[in-house]
Amino acid sequence: MLTMSEINCIKFLRNEKSYSINSISKALGINWRTAKKYADHDQVPREKTIKKNGMMYEEKWGEIVSDWLTEDYKLKKKERRTNKKIFEDLKEMGFRGSYRTVCYFIAEWKKGKDTPEEDRDQNYERLIHPPAEAQVDFGLTSAVKDGKYIDVHCLVMTLPYSNAAFCVALPGENQECFLHGLKMIFNQLGGVPRKIRIDNLKAAVVKPRGRNEEAVFTDEFWRFANYYGFVPQACNPRRGNEKGNVENKVGYIRYNFVTPAPVINSLEHLNRILEEKLIKDRNRIHYQKKKTIKELLEEEYDYLLALPGNDYPAFKEETVKVNKYGEIIIDQTKVHVPRGYNYGQLTVIKYWDRFKVISPYGEILYSDYRPYMNKKRDIPWSSILKSWLHKPRVVNYSRYSPYLPKRVFEYLKIDDLSIRKERIKWLIGLLANHDMNEIDEKFYDFIDQQSDQLKEPKYHPFDVDWAKYDQLQIATERSETQ
Asked: Maximum Cα–Cα distance for the chain, whole Å?
């Protein structure tokens, strides 16, 4: 490309000295076409619009991924989709491109949005893991049950030799949940590891390891370990690298299997989902040993301890006082016990999911689910719908769409975006005085009340026989659960 001084020289020779194009070309030693371009054409500046090519920009896929990334950017990093998860979701929607194409687009979108982490030079010694040694840790994630978020504590056990993982969803991280979760994992594995390395969990450790001191485990955990025959090992405080395999696997399970938060019927439902996905995941090739995880796990079976013949009863027994209102405190929650005030003290037996209250004479006075089994968090529908109002096309593939009641989702799914925006506004107004479950229950009543204000066209599905639609939905849900 010529400089402005060279271009001015060409203009001067052409306009002032009346040089021919050939003369200019020879005098300046430039190509004839170049001389012609700058001698006879005006160099007028033009706006340059760079239009990117490719299926991510010319088709709908780029917009879909951008909307997903915008949604995830508001969440904690551990709750965001991975590139692999985004690619798999796109494939289900008919995407024909490659994983690399998606990664390039995401990398470009993220430029300037994430602050790069500081480079750290902290080297660790590579460990050699013998067969039948395990690592255990908890990881916190979320699921959606009955239209609301619930906190799920995933107990993860890995066998570093094969890199196989097992995971069970639990409502808490107390001792009863911890022991119950280990029992479930042992049953899934079909044996018991010889050594289990754990973090300094309060459910198992009374006093962490110190300088020249071994960790002190709870009596209940020692009894459990002796019954199954494994040797417990505790990590040093603030040394997560000592169980790095399970630390990494907790994140792997969260990002690949429970992000976005799955819709579940119960914890048992979620456990079935996790078990099926982890069994399928063992068909992967081990990152170092060039065998499948499944093959390496089969090699470990010869080193595992056998399961005991009888089930271990995991529970905790406590003596509690009753206040003057006949209430006791369980899991930081006051629970009323019928005829509880008649006794000075009561015995409470806690299981991982239930509890029972027993009188001094051995009578069961009360039994129920533990309070944390019913803890739920509202999905911030008002905020979500307000963001959808600015981008109504995102409704069809938003991470939050599966959490909507089915009839509400179908109501918002209309192709006309202007009508969709009006419906979103209407739902936002309803949410000011009602929650989403109540809107779902009284949906047809609300539609009858507001149909005149919405100014819907005659072909709008208000005229559908919704009773038949509900029957079809119930039949579909039953077939899915069977």
From this structure: 121
pLDDT of residue 124: 46
Given a contact cutoff of 8 angstroms between Cβ atoms, the answer to whether 368 and 385 are in contact is no
CATH of domain 133-303: 3.30.420.10
Count CB atoms within 10 A of the CB of residue 162: 24
Domain range annotation of the chain: 4-40, 55-110, 133-303, 316-374, 381-481
CATH number corresponding to 316-374: 2.30.30
Contact 198, 205 (CB under 8 A): yes
Question: Virtual CA dihedral for 65, 70, 74, 80, nearest 10 degrees?
Answer: 10
* pTM of the model as a whole: 0.74
Tens-digit pLDDT profile for residues 61-76: 988 998 888 888 777 7
Torsion angles phi and psi, residue 158, rounded to 5: -120, 150
pLDDT digits (tens, 9 = 90+) for 294-325: 999 999 988 888 898 888 999 999 999 998 88
Helices (H) then strands (E): counts for the chain: 18, 13
pLDDT one-digit tens code per residue, 205-240: 888 776 667 788 888 998 899 889 899 988 876 665
